[in-house]
Structure formats: C-alpha cells, structure tokens
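Here we describe the complex-level prediction in full. Unlike the single-chain runs in Section 2.1, the two entities below were treated as one system.
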Amino acid sequence: MNKLDLDKQTISECRTIAMGIADDIQAFIAKHTTVSIERTILRLLGVDGVDALGVPMPNVMVEEIREKGNLGPGISLYLAGALQETKMGIDEFVEAYKKGKVSLLGHTLPTAKEADEILKPYYSKTLAIIKENRRIRDRLKNERNVPDMQIYVIVATGNIYEDVVQAKAAARAGADIIAVIRSTGQSLLDYVPYGITTEGFGGTYATQANFQVMRKALDEVGDELGRYIQLVNYASGLCMPEIAAMAALERLDVLLNDSMYGIIFRDINMQRTFIDQYFSRLINAYAGITINTGEDNYLTTSDAVEEAHTVLASQFINEAFAKKALLPEKLMGLGHAFEIDPLVENSFLMEVAQAEMAREIFPDAPLKYMPPTKHITGNIFRATMQDTMFNMATVMTDQSIHLLGMMTEAIHTPFLADRFLAIENARTVQTALKSARDEICFKPDGFVVNRAKTVLNNAKDFLKEVKEINLFRALEAGMFAGVKRPYDGGKGLDGVVVKEKDYFNVVADRMEAELNEN
Amino acid sequence: MKIRPYGDTLSDGKVQSSFTLPCKADEAGLEAAKQFAKQMGYLDPNIVHAEEIGEGFSFFVVYGSVPYLVETDDIKVEKIETPTLSRGEIEELIENEIGRDVIFIGASTGTDAHTVGIDAIMNMKGFAGHYGLERYKHIKAHNLGSQVPNEEFVRQAKLLHADVLLVSQTVTQKDVHLKNMVNLVEILEAENMRQDVILIAGGARITHELAKELGYDAGFGPKKYAEDVASFAINELIKRKRNDS
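The structure predicted for the assembly as a whole is:
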C-alpha cells in the first residue's frame, strides 16, 4: 500500500547511511558509562529511598565512588564486592550505608562472573517484575482492543492527585494515552526526585511514586471502561536510563526517548546524551515500552517547509540508534509534526505529503504525530480550525499516536474543558473520515508525490553530509534545528566516565543477552 | 465616548463565555450555570450548550448581554512611544549615532523551555517574514536558548558586555514567570548593572505595561517583531547616550 511509490533504493540508502552514522557513535558509547547509568544499575538491583538530606540513595552511592574512588570498573563490581565482604543483603547493606556503618570502597573487586553470581538474586527480582509488567500490558492490550490510532493528551497540573482527576476525565472522553508532563526544568536535574509530589511548574515531577499513583488510576478507569489506558512520561534529560528503569517497574507504556533531543533542545552534553540514550533504550526494549522521538521540536525552531528533510533524516538516525539498542520497529514511535504556517499556499498538502511519506518509509513504526503549536496565536477559534486540519491529516495518513492539539496552546496548560473539546474534535474527524484512507490515492507526479520525493532526496543528501563529518561534528555545526552545541559543552559532561578494561554492567549484559536470545 | 460590546446592534452588549462547573448538566446544573452567569453580569444569560465532560464536571457555553460601559476618554495606557523603523533605518541609526556594534543577548530564562518567542526575534530567519536580529548589520545577537538560569544570564551579559537584554517568557502556570522576571531585576540591581543595560521582556502574555510594572524598560507581546524590539532598544540607547554627555 505504497501510495507515494517512493524510490525503495533511496530509502534503503538512507537507512544504510544512518546506520553508518550510528555505528560511529556506538563505538564511542561502548567505551563509556555515566553516573546516571550507574545509578540505574543500583535501582534495578533494588536500591531505592533517600538519605537524611533527601538525596536519592543511588546518587549518594555513585557519588561516593566518583568522589573518593574510581567509577571506571562500574558500580556493579563495587556493590558485589561490598556485599560479599560484609555478608549483607542489599536492603541490609543500604540501611547500614545510610547510617554510615559501611562503605562501597575498601573491598576487593570481584570478577564480572563472581559479581553476576552475587547480584543475580537482586536483578532477577526486578527483571521479573518488569517481565510480568510486560505480560500484563500485552494481555490487556490484546483483550481490550487498543485502537490502531490512539488519542494522546497531556495532563500537567503540578499536583499528581489533580492530574488523576484530569486523566480519568480524559480517558472517559476517549483518550487512549495520557502523558503527565514533567515540571519544567526536571530534565536538567541530575537526580530523580523522590516520593509523591503535589507542586510543580508547568507540569508534575516524574517520580516513581507519582508513576504508581497514575498507573493505578488509569488501570481503575480502564477496567471500568473495558479499555487499556496507556501512560506516558519523559526519559529525556540527564536521567534518561533512570526514568526508563522506573517506568519499566511501574508499567508505563510509552516514554519520550530521543537520541538527540537533550543535546539540541536542553543543552545537555552530546557525549552524555548518546551514552545515556543507549542504556535507556535497552531498558525500553526489555520492558516493551514504546519510545517516542522528538523530531517535532525541530520545526518549532526551524522552518517547517525548508527543514522538512531534517525531520526525516533524524527519524532515520533515531531508527538506527533504536536498532542498536535492540528495539523492534513496533516500539519505535518516530516523531514528526504539523507545523507549517497554515497561511502558506498548499500547506495542508505539504503536511499530508510529509505524514504519508513517514508512513510509507516506516510502515511498522507507531508514528507519533504532533499538532500545530508554532502558528497557534491565542485565537482559540482559529486554533480549533488548525487542529481540525491536523486531525484530518492524521486520519488520512494513518498515523498511530495522535497527539491532540489544544485550542488554548500558548495560553495555559490545558483546562479540563480544553482537553474534552480536543478529544471531541479528534473523534468527530475519525468518525467522519472513517474510510477516507481507503479512498485516497495520490496523483503520480502530483504535488504531494513530488513534495515527498523532494524531501526524501534532500534527507539523503543531508544524511550523507552528516556521515561525512560524523554526528558529533554535525551537532557542533548546528545542522539540526540550527542549534550549535560544542562537544565539550552543555550540562552533564562531568558525569561521563571512561570504562576500564574490567568494566561490568550486570543489568545491561543480562538484558542484552536475553534480548539477543529472542 | 462610552462603549459596550457589539453583537449586531450598536450597544447591545452581547458577549459569550464558556466555563466548567463541578456539577451535572441536568436541570439543576443548567440553573447553576445561569445563576453563575448572572453573577458575572449577564442580564439575560442564555445557556446555549451544556455537556458533561467526565468526573462530575460539565461544560457550559453562555451568550447574553451585559449592562456595563467603558469610558474610552478616561483610558490611559503605557505604550511604547518610539516609532518602529525598518531594518535599514535601524542599521543606519546605529552607524550614525552609536558608531559601534550593539550587543543583544536573549534567552528564555528560568525554567521556561520554550524558544519560539526568542527565536522569532533573534534568529536569522525571524518570523512571518520579519528577519531576526542576527541578520542586522551592527547588531551582535547572542541567543542563549531556553532554561537559562537568571544568574547565568547575568553572568553572560557581563562577559559579552551586552547593551540589551531580551528575556522571553512563554509558559505561565501559577504566575511562575512573574516571579522569575522580578528575580532577574533584583539580581541586576544587586550586581549594580540595572542602569547599564536595556532590559526588555517578551512573550505571548507580556504587555508593555506589565513589563514596566516589573521594572523592565519595555515589554513586547504578540505580533511584535525584531524591528519593533530593535527600534526601541536603539532609540533608548541613543537617548541614554545623550543624557550621559
């Protein structure tokens, strides 16, 4: 069902170049770890809680080694050595550690094989929870017929209990996916806040306790409605793998998880981001969590007509990195957006071309389609019209994750009624255009087909340029979204550690082994 | 002149609004909406739409007339008095009156992650056909991006010897943007820098009046472009230069 009949050779060349780009970076990733990765290992071994000052225990423990020792061998070996010599279990050890009675340092480091033996009971327990969560999700999705096109809305009150009210109302109105937007600035914290939170700015803190509250609420409303309501959060920023681990443990279904978003839009160091994204995606692959990538953001800073090819190029790169992390296509929610100025002639046709092109090139990916935001003016009536056009493009081109636009975009985080009206709009369009896709074919050599061809060819040229200088240099040169980021600049570089020869990540090795078996 | 809203007959006072109440959309709910609208000042509220939207809430749309009048002759507002010049005129003005490059730095400060506003003013491409400051001759524009802490913003301002500071604030929840904007002024004052820079705020919900109130030199809301901002800043710079000499 290739409506645009795009050149298969060109598409396959793009994939090959993108994989080459990812290969270069993957070689770098393999040689490094980060403080966030090491903290994630601790979390997946069951370390949780905070110390007397409220600092999360994974941070306290990793910092001890970073400050007084050498993180190069990895936390797995330190912890295994400490458990062996103190003859304590992890819970007992962490309690003693909080009281200052034991240290991770000063013990003989075991071999990787020995460490695996020592830590096996702990990671087996958490990995079993994750696998069980995956089974539950698969079962509920099967039993309850999750639609192919899923309505996605956000809640963002700052108070998780208020979020629950809004999320349940949205689910009743027809939302399939609920995202709890994070408090602004959380992506720049080098720790994950702890416990239930009732105050945030522009969103609600992502904490494991908050994940639990919302999961329970969505399960309740889902049971009542006979549907499965999916939960989304954000594994971007400085704690990508930690958020992924918590999401896996609390059965989140979707995570925003882009390979480059943090670099370009949050000024997080590029080395740190690439290293972190790998482990976070590996966890997502293991947990069956769908990732969403952030290409839509390019178009808020760059022009959506001229820079359309950078979106496609980035989708290819995100796909390549996802494959490296063993994610199957069906979990790759590649992103794009409806962001062309509506007053540009044939803007709607260009949007349809871009969306249909993404559908044709990534047939198995649950594409995430983002609504207009940049050209929403505060005129809520015009915004409704723009959102309706977006909803039409979504249905016509069979997008998967349909993120709804709000008429009050750029005014405030959505009110209850804003969300209701948005869902009503989307459902009306879905119903009214139910079989439209089956009826539509595009004129060969017409405007839509030619636009898609041009974008694809430009993406190929762009990918070639990136490959030639390598992705690090391309980001330094500002090739994505016109934003330049220095290799050694940005936040979080001090958390990057070179792996030593004996480095061991007990969880990653296990996950890779299991995923490669299947 | 006294005015009131217009529907289709002068001075008919017709307005509409919509709101959500925590009640059902039944007879009692409709009456609740009606009474609420009356308290809002509607003389004859007509609840044209009522719908339950989940979790015990209902959405209402109301039309009706209001009796209030506004005397336009009494209105005084703070607005920017400097005329907006073209890019060429601005470049010429800098060349003739200032004689050196003027340095702008801009950012979405605090926790604000939105860059659309600051990009529209500063980036080469600009917005809606209005080129950004980066394209101007004699203007050095440094766009620091989003989520820049106020302390870092001030540090960069010092480092780059900025003449003009542009602060973009987009997201607003529980007025966090106002606190952040005031905080910047306080830091600049503590650093003894406030008088040395032109401080400008921008964003969808920013007005000149609000910006002045918060201690800024000017504020720019929607439909303002690089040339509006630059015209004000350059004129203000020239004014200050004359006052100094």
